[in-house]
Structure formats: structure tokens, C-alpha cells
Request: fold
Amino acid sequence: MRNAASWGRFPVASETVLAQRWRGDSLPQAPAGKTLLPYGLGRSYGDSCLNDGQAVVATRLLRRLISFDAERGVLRCEAGTSLAEILEFAIPRGWFLPVTPGTRFVTVGGAVANDVHGKNHHVAGNFGRFVNGFELLRSCGGRQWCSRRENAGWFHATVGGLGLTGLITQAEVRLKPIRNRLIDCETIRYGTLEEFFALSLESEPGYEYLVAWVDATAKGSQAGRGLLMRGNHNGELPMESAPAERQLRMPFDFPGFVINRYTIQAFNTLYFRRQRGSRKCSRVDLYPFFYPLDSIAEWNRMYGRSGFLQWQCLVPLDRGPDALREILESIGRSGQGSFLAVMKTMGGIPPEGNLTFSGRGVTLALDLRNAPAVFSLLERLDRVVAEAGGKLYPAKDARMSAAHFQRFYPNWNEHCRWMDPAFSSSFWRRVSHA
Amino acid sequence: MRKILVCGAASGIAEALGRRLAAEGCALALAGRNAERLAAMRGDLALRGAAAVHTYALDLRKTGCHAELIETAAAAMEGLDTLVLAHGILGDQEKAVADFAVARDVLETNFLSSVSLLTVAANRFAAQQSGQIVVFGSVAGDRGRQSNYVYGASKGALEIFCQGLRNRLAKRQVNILLVKPGFVDTAMTAHLPKNALFASPERVAADIHRAMRQRKDVIYTPGFWKWVMLAVRLIPEPVFKRMRL
Reply:
């Protein structure tokens, strides 16, 4: 058994670590009476990648590329391949991920199991839409290819299925063509929540990528103010090699007091004021545009040893402004604040996964240093989300109640039918009890 | 373009090294026990840029097949300029102490099969007056310790053999690189509890790759093992024999 934590470093679990080294190998045997959970790069924030007291199957050795159709951009690779490794292969050949989360240090298997989304959700939907199929290895001896045509039930249960339906050993993904590594980006400073919604809706048709950083310390009429970034791939310039990226590393766990209401407020105010004009156009490389935090290895240590909680909600568009105002004001009043609050409108393209975090609406993601007061604050926010008919993102959750999860995902019970009887997770045990 | 035969190609370090060599556009011949695993590697390395990837599933302990393996690989790649010997087993020291058959298995796999491959390849490289041979030794070969002296003896013997070969072939522009990894997090050590001394196979492969370019004679990887093993070697035997190592 060994101690393990997810990216949020809360909670801490004790697990037996097994490894799958070759895709043709049979599933590793869990110690008697213990369940298994696939584990890739551990970038889920909460406990959906943990299996406390049980076992995990590490998938990172499954990182071989299998085939690439250079005409159509279809890549087949093993499930532990990271998106970073895919990009290293694909970008020089003129291809990019059709959907990417805010870090490239996740595995393909994890991207499928969480049916991740990105800054282009309003036009592209979730990751699973670009997955042609995958091989699922189950404890009862089965090894099956799952796609929209073959074993479709397993396909839709496994996309967004939180790793509970079996081990994905390999997957086939459709990439998208790009001309070069550049994004033409415009950053707009806006002052109110109304402006955010107006700007977002106005930008959706003409901009593939859309996201706003929010000053989560602002109160009253300023609640929701921030910087909206909208961008498109540059379609003109030729492909150049990647600019040298300075890799920094968080050298140690910051003492807990470093992140407090004053430092957070100061940072947010400075960040909000960082550009002089209200609009700024720039041409930036893919990596800093999509993965600003990836250049600081182990940035999660900033929050100290006790870690932090991520919280990401999605609220339907018609209830969005009221619910978000209430949420942002609660956070502003609480003085908890967040360095990295992000807000974006999400699109209505139906996802492939039964439990996918998706839907037409507006999503807000925050991170808050782990402290006792945070739990009661987030519980209050959960209620606002529930009343607005919204939901929370399991990949970022470490504490939502079972009642709330079951309300957010009313078809959760059906997922049990597809689950591998030998698989479980800390998250699932927490949210699936009566 | 370099033409490289890798024995024990599916080992963790060899696979990581293979990815680096593939990215350089080398032609690769992979020898190992399991055909399915070699096939998985072939697809991966070809996509990562290898000029060609050939696979040979065989048991390298059977020394009778070595000359043919080297011939076939050289024919398939239209030449051979580098041989990497990465095959090996750790063996179970407790069993090997009790049972010579187990010890013999370790010595045959790690030492004798390597001597056979080295003999064939060395003569070939001597004749063509060029070539490089990369041999995986171990820090365990630097001094016999009660916890792993059978494995250590197989790697230590290999080092002496390589020294002699290097001495013989230096005049023929053939480089013999002996690599001494410390603890590496691979299938060979999967049963051991991990600590800060363990290095990733990628890290070790990067060191080997650099040493290959520099045509070094002997490297420790990660580099700090050089100093650790210097200290271990300097302990006087009367003291050393009383220690529990």
C-alpha cells in the first residue's frame, strides 16, 4: 500500500499500485477482495482517480503509438499516452487535438473516462465526440472494441464513465488539421457579469476558442468582472518549430499562509489591470494559449501541504446570470477567493457519454485552498447549482454529497449496470450510496 | 543512418532508448522473447521516425542462434553498426544461493549469452573497422554483496570481458560502452519498494543516448552512482565482509 493523492492533494488515499505494461497483457490481479481503478497521470483534482484502501492499475507504461492515418488525421495509440506526447507527434505533422483540457499532462484514457472539454466546447463539444473507438479490457476476461457501432452500449457508458467500466487499453482519436502553431487571440477586459454574457454570446459564432478569467474577489456590481479571451487558429503563416518553453518548477510546498485573502485579492486586482487598454490583440503559440500552467511543474504545491479544492459547475443559460451572481457574491463575501477562476459558455452539442459533464449553459471553475470554511461555502454553492438545474464536474470534485450527485446525474443508477464488478473508486463509493 | 540491433528490446530501458533512436531516424532490429510485445514496439517506433523496424522473437539464452540473428538483422537493415545488449534477469538471490540451477540461469542469461553475442559482433565490427557495442552492466557488478552477488557476478564478469574487448578493438575504431545503471523503475524491479534512489527508464535512456554519441567507455546512470560505488569499493574487505549489504 502506498499513499496517493490527486492533483488537488486532497484527499489522501492509501492504495496498492499495480501496472499494465503491455496492451496484450491480461488485467493485473487485485489483492483478494480489493477493487481496481485505472490511474493515468492523476490530474483529476478530487477523488475520481483514487481508490482508497483498494488498488489502482497504473496505465502510463501503455504509451505506444499504434497507427496514424496521415490523410485523415486518425491516430490510434495506447491509453496511457499523454496528450502532450500526442501533440509532440501531431503538431509537426500539421494536426492538433480536436478538444483539449487546460493541461496536456493527461492520458488519452483519462480524457475518454472524463469526457473532457476545452475552450471550444461551444462549437466542438466534448472529447468523446472525436473518439472513433477504444479497446476495453474487463475483469471477467472480456476484451472488446467499443465504438458507436460495435458494443455501443459500452462505448457510451465508458466515455465519461470515470474509469469504472473496465480498463481502456487503446483508443482511436480523430485529430484536426492546423496550418501552424499560432492562435490569433484577443483579450477584452469587461466589468460586469452582463458584459460577460453579452460578449460571450456575441463571440461564439466567430471564435473557436472562448474563455474568461474571472476576478473571484470582486464584489457587488463588479462581481464577475474579468478578462475574456477569444481566439482562432491562424490560417496563413507556415508551420514553424516550437518556441523554447521555459520550464519552471514549484520548488517546495508553500507554507499554508502564503495563499490568503490579501494575496489572492492583490493578485486578482493586478491581473485584472495587467493590460492597459480594454482590448489587446496578440498572436500566441498554442502552448501558452491552451496550457498556461503547464509551464510551472507541480504548481499545485502553491497551495501548501493541505492542498486545495476545485469546484466546477455548469448552470443552464437561462438561469446562468442569476445563479452565477449569487455564487460569485457568496465567494466574494466569504473572502476565500480563488487565483484561477475561469468562466465560459458551453454549447448544446449532445455528448457521447451517459454521464458526461456537458450541456448548454455557463460553467465556472474555481480553486480554493483547503480550509474548514471552504466545505460549508461549497455546500451552499452546490445548493444554488442544484436549484438552478445545473451540475458539478466529477473530475474536479472531492466533496459533493451523494444526494447532489444523484440529482445532477439522474441516470447515475444506470451506470452501475455497465460498471465492471471488480472496479470502483473513492469518488464512486462516496456519491453512489443511498 | 545508423543500423542498430537491440537484444532484450522490450526491457523498460531498451524501449525508452529505442524511442530516442527512432526519433533520430535509425533503422532498428529488435530481438526479444515475446513476438506480440515486439510487434507493439515496432508500430510505435516506426511512427516515431525509425527508418525501419525488424523484429526477431527468440530466446537469447540459446547461443546457437546468435550468429544467424546478427546475420539476418544485418541483411535486413543492409548493414549493422551498433549492437545494444539489454537483455538480462535479476534472478532470485535467495533461490540462487540455495540452488545452482537458478544461479546458472542468471549467469547464462546475463553473461554467457552476452559473451556469445559479443564474440560474433566484435569480429564483425573488427573486420569492418567501425561499430559500437552498448552493454548493460550494473552497479551490482562493482562489488559482491550478500544480497545480490549472483546477479552482481554475472554483470561484473561482463564488465571484465568488455574491458578486454575494448582493449582489443580500440585500434579498430570500435567503441564498447558499458552502462551501469543504479536502481531503475522497470519490470525487473517491480517487486521492490521504491525510494528516492530509483530513476525512470527515460532518464537512464537519455544518459545512455548521450554516452553513445560521445562514445564513452563506461558510464554510471544516474551519474551520482559513480560516487556511491566509489565509496562502496573503497571500504576495506575486512570491514566490508562484516557489513550487511
Notes: The two ends of chain B are 45 Å apart (CA to CA).
